[in-house]
């Protein structure tokens, strides 16, 4: 009996439960089974296979071999295939429904986009038409569209009508108030407005009262409302007034002025109450109302005058200037660094910065016209607090010395200028932005006004010149006294300087003391100048000023002090003096330096050295060259002076070409004078040295170059005494010149000395007859001279081999006639005559061989 095949409907309701017949069993699955992400085909097939195997067959023992039965699997897979076909059809139907819905949605979307696009184009067209209408553009027909201009004119007309309406209302109210004051003698309407109108009402009340006062001035010039009963009276325009009977006389102007005064006082009182309670909004309302009273001058004065800073500082401003004595001593000591700004002034300036920065924020919130209030506040701070303290500090410094005053002035100017810069960068009412141009101009003007009295005309540079001149004169006092005695009593260099003439010293000291007394210098400054001069304070009587050799010598440290003082003055001038005055100021200070360092200091010392060098030319003893060491210091100071003027001071005068050329000329003249004096000293020294060399050579014995065979052969082992004396003397000269000079100056000096030595020695040889043995002595001396000069640092200034001519000349006395002939033939035409002159000094010059050599050329 065969089994029938199950239908698809039967397969769709199959479950996983097992039954006794395989034909009634089939798997159940839906679309969700395949949409699961964990779905695996292999596992699905295995589940179908497991469902097709009978339960008994799976659990029963495998006692015997059973044949494979494919029918359950076939039926199961048939059922699954049918179910899959049903699901496929169901899925296709759902896909078709969804596709139809998507097509309908796309069609609806396209319709919406088209509709929105048309609406947007319509809106753009409308906007363009409106824009063209407002801007007076062209319409579609090419006709000028004036709708925009019409709208503008309509708006302007409406605004004008509104202003006319407001003026009419104000005029009506003004007439009403005038009637009250003229007919009733009161201002009740304005009083009500003042009490109930608030901040805006008070502003309007003050404005109307001002207008009433003007009306009263014109209509009631005498201050009272006159009776108009006189029919013949005429008004100011010549029109007869209509008689209206007797009216009471009310002093309208007095009433209005009294009202304004009361209003102002009430507003000021109210402002003060708000200020004490720090009610900034209330202060602003009162300040706005008080603007009509003298442009707010009263409220600004009230605000500034009652500020705690001025109240507290008024008590401190009268305190005496204090400070430790060490600080004041350093302030007037030119060799010490300036201590900076005075402490009490510094404290005040620091407090001013904090107060102005904090107060500017309050002013901005409390005043609608805050810039004017801040300007008034700044002016009060600078003109009262800072100026008073500054004057006290400078007066105290001026009591000490000129230098103390100048240093205090510079420190104060620098510190207050820093205050101004800090306030500008802070911004004050515009914080964190920079201050407005008006506030910046006010700060700059206040800074300028503080220091104007100290820079009027040439007062500042005159102070600088006076200070430097006093310092330089004090520093060079003993130096000038020392050299003034030398000029009156010249002997040797240091011997004449060491003699002290009491009368000359007294006159020099009295002149210095008289100059100090005549300038009305403070006692502290006099003490400082005496200390710089090396004098004691108890030397107030006319006593001798003791000077030593060291006082008459140039001092590099003193020169550096002078340049340091000058540099401080120039730097101070650059900071304090206006820029257009800088070239002129620099010229004044440089002239002062050239006078004291160039003429008084260097030129005086060089003159002393020159006199001493000149005095050594004709002495019978070896020349005293003790003036040479001073040339080293003079050269260094001269270089410092030249460097200072050319690299530091001259560039500062570039803006003024005329002054620059004048400075170049004066500096060049001074330096040329000093350099010529220095060169003259070296020339005099060379002359004195060569003169002594001549004297040493004059000691040469005639037998030195014609020794006897038995007794004078010892001369061959060493140089002659004259040569030894020359070498010893020139060695000392070279040593002293090396310590005094350097570089090209030393090379030039020694080269000239070497050339002079060569000329003297050659001339010296022409004075002697020289034997063959004496020729060996001459060679020994000449070799020593050459070795001496070879050890000098002449550099390229001395021609190479220039001293070898001495050895060559010495060889003329020892070589034979044949060698003489070859030597003469190898010499130039100009040298032959000189060589023959030396050959003729040979002892055997008359021999046949020598004569033959001479006649051969």
UniProtKB/TrEMBL annotation:
<feature type="domain" description="Exocyst complex component Sec10-like alpha-helical bundle">
    <location>
        <begin position="204"/>
        <end position="851"/>
    </location>
</feature>
<dbReference type="GO" id="GO:0006887">
    <property type="term" value="P:exocytosis"/>
</dbReference>
<dbReference type="Pfam" id="PF20667">
    <property type="entry name" value="Sec10_N"/>
</dbReference>
<comment type="similarity">
    <text>Belongs to the SEC10 family.</text>
</comment>
<protein>
    <submittedName>
        <fullName>Exocyst complex component Sec10-like protein</fullName>
    </submittedName>
</protein>
<feature type="region of interest" description="Disordered">
    <location>
        <begin position="220"/>
        <end position="246"/>
    </location>
</feature>
<dbReference type="InterPro" id="IPR048627">
    <property type="entry name" value="Sec10_HB"/>
</dbReference>
<feature type="coiled-coil region">
    <location>
        <begin position="74"/>
        <end position="108"/>
    </location>
</feature>
<dbReference type="InterPro" id="IPR048625">
    <property type="entry name" value="Sec10_N"/>
</dbReference>
<keyword id="KW-0268">Exocytosis</keyword>
<keyword id="KW-0175">Coiled coil</keyword>
<feature type="domain" description="Exocyst complex component Sec10 N-terminal">
    <location>
        <begin position="70"/>
        <end position="194"/>
    </location>
</feature>
<dbReference type="GO" id="GO:0000145">
    <property type="term" value="C:exocyst"/>
</dbReference>
<keyword id="KW-0813">Transport</keyword>
<dbReference type="InterPro" id="IPR009976">
    <property type="entry name" value="Sec10-like"/>
</dbReference>
<dbReference type="GO" id="GO:0006893">
    <property type="term" value="P:Golgi to plasma membrane transport"/>
</dbReference>
<dbReference type="Pfam" id="PF07393">
    <property type="entry name" value="Sec10_HB"/>
</dbReference>
């Amino acid at each position: 009996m065969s089994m029938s095949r199950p239908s698809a409907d039967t397969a769709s309701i199959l479950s996983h439960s097992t039954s006794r017949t395989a034909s009634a069993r089939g798997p159940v699955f839906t679309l969700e089974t395949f949409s699961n992400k964990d779905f695996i085909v292999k596992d699905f097939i295995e589940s179908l296979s497991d469902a097709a195997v009978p339960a008994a067959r799976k659990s029963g023992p495998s006692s015997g071999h059973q044949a494979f039965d494919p029918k359950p699997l076939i039926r199961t897979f048939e059922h699954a295939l049918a179910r899959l076909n049903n699901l496929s059809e169901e899925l296709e139907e759902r896909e078709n429904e969804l596709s139809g819905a998507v097509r309908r949605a796309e069609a609806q979307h396209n319709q919406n986009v088209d509709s929105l696009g048309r609406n947007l184009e319509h809106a753009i067209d409308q906007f363009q038409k409106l824009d063209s209408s407002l801007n007076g553009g062209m319409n579609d027909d090419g006709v000028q569209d004036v709708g925009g201009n019409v709208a503008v004119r309509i708006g302007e007309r409406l605004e004008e009508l509104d202003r006319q309406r407001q003026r009419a209302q104000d005029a009506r109210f003004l007439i009403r108030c005038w009637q009250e004051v003229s007919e009733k003698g009161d201002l009740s309407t304005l009083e009500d407005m003042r009490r109930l109108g608030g901040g805006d009402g008070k502003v309007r009340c003050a404005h109307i009262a001002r207008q009433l006062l003007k009306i009263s001035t014109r209509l009631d010039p005498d201050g009272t409302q006159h009776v108009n009963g006189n029919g013949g009276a005429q008004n100011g325009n010549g029109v007869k007034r209509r008689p209206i009977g007797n009216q009471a006389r009310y002093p309208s102007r007095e009433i209005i002025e009294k009202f304004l005064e009361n209003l102002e006082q009430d507003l000021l009182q109210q402002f003060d109450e708000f200020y004490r309670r720090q009610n900034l909004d209330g202060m602003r309302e009162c300040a706005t109302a008080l603007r009509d009273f003298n442009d707010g001058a009263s409220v600004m004065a009230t605000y500034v005058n009652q500020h705690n800073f001025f109240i507290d500082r008024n008590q401190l401003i009268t305190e005496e200037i204090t400070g430790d004595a060490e600080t004041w001593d350093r302030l007037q000591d030119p060799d010490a660094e300036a201590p900076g700004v005075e402490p009490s002034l510094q404290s005040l300036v620091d407090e001013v910065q904090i107060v102005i920065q904090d107060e500017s924020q309050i002013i901005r919130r409390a005043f609608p016209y805050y810039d004017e209030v801040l300007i008034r506040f700044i002016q009060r701070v600078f003109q009262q607090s800072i100026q008073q303290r500054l004057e006290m500090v400078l007066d105290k410094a001026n009591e000490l010395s000129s230098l103390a005053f100048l240093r205090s002035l510079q420190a104060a100017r620098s510190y207050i200028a820093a205050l101004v810069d800090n306030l500008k960068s802070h911004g004050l009412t515009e914080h964190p932005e920079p201050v407005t141009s008006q506030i910046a101009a006010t700060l700059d003007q206040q800074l300028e006004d503080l220091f104007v009295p100290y820079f009027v005309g040439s007062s500042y540079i005159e102070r600088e010149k006076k200070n430097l001149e006093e310092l330089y004169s004090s520093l060079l006092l003993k130096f000038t006294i020392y050299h003034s005695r030398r000029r009156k009593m010249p002997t040797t260099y240091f011997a004449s300087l060491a003699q002290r003439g009491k009368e000359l010293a007294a006159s020099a000291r009295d002149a210095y003391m008289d100059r100090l007394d005549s300038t009305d210098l403070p006692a502290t400054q006099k003490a400082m100048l005496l200390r710089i001069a090396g004098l004691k304070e108890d030397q107030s009587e006319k006593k001798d000023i003791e000077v030593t050799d060291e006082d008459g010598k140039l001092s590099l440290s003193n020169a550096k002090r002078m340049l340091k003082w000058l540099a401080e003055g120039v730097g101070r001038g650059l900071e304090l003096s206006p820029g257009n005055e800088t070239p002129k100021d620099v010229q004044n200070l440089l002239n002062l330096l050239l006078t004291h360092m160039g003429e008084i200091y260097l030129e005086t010392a060089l003159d002393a050295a020159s006199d001493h060098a000149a005095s050594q030319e004709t002495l019978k003893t070896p020349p005293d060259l003790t003036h040479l060491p001073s040339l080293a210091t003079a050269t260094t100071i001269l270089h410092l002076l030249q460097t200072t003027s050319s690299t530091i001071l001259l560039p500062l005068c570039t803006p003024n070409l005329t002054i620059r050329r004048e400075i170049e000329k004066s500096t060049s003249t001074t330096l040329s004078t000093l350099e010529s004096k220095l060169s003259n000293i070296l020339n005099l020294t060379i002359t004195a040295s060569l003169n002594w060399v001549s004297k040493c050579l004059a000691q040469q014995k005639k037998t030195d170059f014609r020794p006897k065979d038995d007794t004078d052969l010892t001369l061959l082992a060493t140089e002659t005494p004259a040569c030894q004396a020359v070498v010893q003397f020139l060695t000392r000269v070279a040593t002293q010149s090396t310590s005094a000079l350097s570089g090209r100056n030393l090379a030039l000096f020694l080269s000239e000395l070497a050339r002079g030595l060569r000329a003297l020695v050659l001339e010296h040889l022409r004075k002697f007859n020289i034997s063959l043995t004496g020729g060996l002595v001459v060679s020994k001396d000449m070799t020593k001279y050459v070795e001496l000069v070879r050890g000098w640092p002449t550099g390229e200034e001395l021609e190479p081999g220039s001293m070898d001519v001495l050895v060559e000349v010495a060889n003329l006395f020892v070589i034979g006639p044949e060698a003489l002939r070859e030597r003469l033939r190898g010499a130039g035409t100009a040298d032959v005559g000189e060589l023959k002159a030396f050959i003729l000094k040979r002892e055997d010059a008359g021999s046949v061989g020598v004569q033959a050599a001479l006649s051969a050329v």
